[in-house]
Specification:
By secondary structure, this protein is of the alpha/beta class. The protein has two domains: 18-235, 3-Layer(aba) Sandwich (Rossmann fold), CATH 3.40.50.300; 240-303, Alpha-Beta Plaits. Helix content is 33%, strand content 26%. The chain contains eleven helices and 14 strands. The protein has helices spanning 58-66, 87-93, 109-117, 126-132, 148-159, 178-193, 205-211, 229-235, 249-257, 278-291, 306-314; strands at residues 18-29, 32-43, 47-51, 73-78, 81-82, 94-97, 166-170, 198-201, 214-219, 222-227, 240-245, 263-267, 270-275, 298-302. A six-stranded mixed sheet has the order 6-7-8-3-9-10, with helices on both faces. Strand 9 (214-219) and strand 10 (222-227) form a beta hairpin. Helix 3 (109-117) crosses helix 4 and helix 5 (148-159) packs parallel to helix 6. The longest helix has 16 residues, at 178-193.
Length: 320
């Protein structure tokens, strides 16, 4: 059963040009409606995330924008161009980094960039891309010699070889170790700082919170929430949790008597304070402990995350 999550109004973007605009997008496969009336826009210079469990319709939606699939109904404009009337023109103006970029294992890094650049009239120079993505010392390395993180950096370089007006990233850090994932995040953040417009699909909620200005959450072919991560979290009405390990009995008694906006529960030797006002409650708990000379010991705050919001909205794990 799905939870209800209030949604904050979408931020005003009247001073920003729209790079991607889709309206009433529908895609069917037989009796299955994979995308059901999806509408949204992406602003110039923002990182826009599309999230959803497997089968939600996010990949199909993005592939229709990229020109890889044709919708049954709806309109798509990319960089002011009707993408349904001029799909080949759109492909020249966008960059796409797929979840897995297949290249001949024995091709060298520099050769791969040269090859992709050859598809465009005025590509970004290979030396510039090698420098931007810290691949200079790997120029003469075969693809098969690269780590997963380096392969993803190369994939980003290849997606940017035509200096695209909008960049599409499909699960850019899937399968990477935490350090390599952070390195890719840093690269994407740098592109954001340079004003690149990016559409990102991801299974990692932390990644969406870290990188995206706004996110659209999809389920069963529809967008069920669209806003900034902070606004979605604030509007969800979910409770944070303050955990006090081995709380002294005196503190337990005082907190139960105090007029605090909390719901108190116990988990073994840990006292749990459930609240929608964690900052206020934390200050009061600290004050009470100080006034009565009580050692708080170990205390921590588990704040609401975008993943909590996602589970409330869909009732499903992201990777289902």
């Amino acid at each position: 059963m799905r939870g209800e999550c209030p949604r904050s109004p979408e931020p005003s973007n009247t001073d920003m040009s729209k790079v991607v605009e889709i309206e009433g997008l529908v895609k069917r496969y037989g009796s299955l409606v994979a995308v059901d009336g999806v509408s949204f826009s992406v602003d110039e210079g923002e990182v826009f995330g599309v999230l959803g469990p497997n089968g939600a319709g996010k990949t199909t939606t993005v592939e229709m924008i990229e020109g890889l699939r044709r919708p049954d109904r709806g309109s798509i404009r990319v960089l002011g161009i009707d993408a349904l009337k001029e799909p080949e023109r759109i492909k020249e103006l966008i960059g796409v980094q797929l979840q897995t970029t297949s290249l001949y294992d024995r091709i060298k890094v520099g050769e791969a960039i040269d090859l992709f650049g050859g598809y465009y009239g005025t590509p970004v120079s290979t030396p510039q891309l090698l420098e931007e993505f810290s691949l200079v010392d790997k120029k003469d390395s075969n693809i098969k010699q690269l780590s997963g993180g380096l392969r993803q950096r190369l994939a980003l370089a290849l997606a940017l070889v035509n200096d695209p007006g909008v960049l599409f990233l499909d699960e850019p850090t899937t399968g990477l170790d935490p350090q390599a994932r952070r390195n890719v995040w840093s690269t994407i953040a740098d592109l954001r700082q340079k004003g690149k417009t990016i559409m990102l699909t991801t299974h990692y909620m932390e990644e969406a919170e870290e990188l995206c200005r706004r996110v659209a959450i999809m389920d069963h072919g529809r967008i069920i929430a669209l806003d900034t991560p902070d606004a979605l979290i604030a509007g969800a009405g979910l409770e944070s949790r303050i955990e006090i390990n081995n709380a002294p009995e005196a503190l337990r008694s005082l907190l139960k008597q105090a007029d605090l906006p909390v719901r108190i529960s116990e988990d073994g030797g840990t006292m749990l304070l459930h609240t929608g006002k964690s900052s206020q409650v934390l200050k009061e708990v600290t004050r009470i402990a100080t006034d009565h000379d009580i050692d708080l010991g170990s205390i921590s705050v588990q704040r609401v995350t975008l993943e909590d919001v996602f589970l409330t909205l869909t009732g499903r794990q992201l990777r289902e």
